[in-house]
Amino acid sequence: xxxxxxxxxxxxxxxxxxxxxxxxxxxxxxxxxxxxxxxxxxxxxxxxxxxxxxxxxxxxxxxxxxxxxxxxxxxxxxxxxxxxxxxxxxxxxxxxxxxxxxxxxx
Length: 106
Prior knowledge:
- The protein is mainly alpha-helical.
- The chain has one domain (3-105).
- Helices cover 89% and strands 0% of the residues.
- The chain has helices spanning 3-31, 34-53, 58-77, 79-86, 89-105.
- The radius of gyration is 16 Å and the shape is elongated.
- The model has no long low-confidence stretch (mean pLDDT 89).
């Protein structure tokens, strides 16, 4: 398999994150964030199983990666807003910093 095909798996994943992020932020303002986090979690599990079961079928793996990007979008786009909803303004900066450091440690 060529390097370009492997790089496309990441590119389409990020395309799914970018396109779905806009839609998820808009719907979170209307209906709230909780259902989007649950939908993202379920879709991420299903698409990860799909990606693992795709075997040597590149097209199936590519579509699974696109759906993984869509499933990751709520976590990329809404976490900062959720932290802002939980804490006061003067505390939320420290909480976001702690969250960023915990991601770096993992």
